[in-house]
Amino acid sequence: TMIRNSITLFQKCGSKSLTKFSNVQSFRNLYSQAFLGIDNYVKNRERVHSQFINMLETFKTKMTEFVDHSSRNMIFTEDLKNMVHLVEPNSDDVVLVVKMMTKFNKQNKDLRFGSFVFGPVVMRMFYYLDDPDNALECFLNPDLTGFFDQIASYQILMDLLLEHDRHEDILKVYEVVKNHQLHGMRYPKNVIVLLYASCYKKNTPESLKYASDLWGELMSVGHLPMRRTATFLAGLALNQNKPNIALEIIANTKQQNYMTVRNLKALALAELGRIEEVLLILRSVINTDATVDKKGTFARDSIEKIHSIIKSTNNKDFLSEFTSIEKYLAENGHYTDDSLHNLLCSEISLQQNAGKTNMYQHNVKMQSYYNKGNFSNYNQQSNKLNRSTRPGISEMY
């Protein structure tokens, strides 16, 4: 297994022309560092390193001896916790962590002691190391069966794979998730969002067919996908010149006034030649001007595309009305310079607010409870959260 010699933290990105909305596109991590718990993992690395500053190599040597096949020594919870936060980006450290996990997992199966949930923490470690290869290998390792059976582990792994364009591996992980049906959940919403982000990013006829077929499956079992799932699929359909599919998907989205939904709907209608309805959507912004936020109503590249389509109709009445509306939108701050692609792929963060049912908010940071003070506090909180009805969220912290 190859480990990177150098790591650039929190700046991982891929670039590829993904859509026809803009000439230059980029794709960051989909879920925020705070959402995935990476920021708190980093803080705890610093804390653990400070505790082991004078005994780091001694500890690693001791653990290397403990994982030897001839050793009868056990790997305890604190040993693995510490090593997961002491690991450096070199093959020796990563091999040691994996051996410790394997031995610890076998111990837990045999003796059933210890309540600390390691899966998400280990995936944060691999995320920090920017090491999708070892993360996936451990996830699929039969010797670690059950170790990563948490929605949070799935999500962190899939986000890491997404950043590295590992689309086939994302499908492989999803099949495992689907077959496990953890907590009785065959379609965990955050996992589905990442799967559709992968299909959108792949941007091929095959990925559209896969995403469309899965959408039909989700609808047939009464699953209500998150808005981001719908907009990824609609965006993919538009990129694959299937505006009819995009329009049908958007029609099933409750939040019709949401900016990305409005943009996608207007574009789909324009490409279907239904210009009157496009103009109706544009006029609706003017008519509701007093009750909506004026900023960021339309992406500029969406309007430019619509303009081009209307111009190609050679219908002077359409063009005249569009020009008038376009001028109003520009003068009253209804444009954003962000491309529609960037809006679709904007970072997802988690907002802690008991009064809100929609917990997924853009650009809102929330500090998780994970290891804020010490590991014992984390264990107590983890046990409480494991009883939550929202395992995809609770296991993050």
TrEMBL record:
<feature type="compositionally biased region" description="Polar residues">
    <location>
        <begin position="377"/>
        <end position="391"/>
    </location>
</feature>
<feature type="region of interest" description="Disordered">
    <location>
        <begin position="377"/>
        <end position="397"/>
    </location>
</feature>
<dbReference type="InterPro" id="IPR034629">
    <property type="entry name" value="PTCD2"/>
</dbReference>
<dbReference type="GO" id="GO:0005739">
    <property type="term" value="C:mitochondrion"/>
</dbReference>
<protein>
    <submittedName>
        <fullName>Putative pentatricopeptide repeat-containing protein 2 mitochondrial</fullName>
    </submittedName>
</protein>
<dbReference type="GO" id="GO:0007005">
    <property type="term" value="P:mitochondrion organization"/>
</dbReference>
<dbReference type="GO" id="GO:0003723">
    <property type="term" value="F:RNA binding"/>
</dbReference>
<dbReference type="GO" id="GO:0050684">
    <property type="term" value="P:regulation of mRNA processing"/>
</dbReference>
